Amino acid sequence: MADKQALEQFFRDEFPQANFSIEAVGDRHAQIRKQIGFEHLRPGGTVSGPLLMEVADAALYVAILGEIGLVAMAVTPNLNINFLSKPAADRDILANCSLLKVGKTQIVGEVTIYSEGKTEPVVHAVATYAIPLSEGR
């Protein structure tokens, strides 16, 4: 298992391009925050779909590493995403992840993303991560 401080250091060292903050992690859950800026918007003034997919994937990765420890080579073989409503262009987005199945070589989780301060979700995603045997538990 990895706590919030260890994860923050891991992302600084291994993924310095990761530009999100970890709000909470533990007990098969994680919440991350992504600050939205002009560079994240697409025509029509909404947050881009690829960015929302990135945030969903990152939230799952944080929850997984919080559960199994720092496994850099865990990868996403599957991610299904539903865009439910238009995210606010002027608010951070919050991604909440829950792990549904934690196996030795495969982990499945779901992520719900909200615009900060809103109660209706903007995204729901379900994804699978593959855990390499050499780094498995």
UniProtKB/TrEMBL annotation:
GO molecular function terms attached to this record: hydrolase activity
EC code: 3.1.2.-
Top-level taxon of the source organism: Bacteria
Enzyme class (EC, first level): hydrolase
InterPro entries: HotDog_dom_sf, Thioestr_dom
Swiss-Prot/TrEMBL keywords: Hydrolase
Thioesterase domain boundaries: 44-120
Pfam families per record: 4HBT (PF03061)
Name of the protein: PaaI family thioesterase
Organism (species): Shewanella submarina
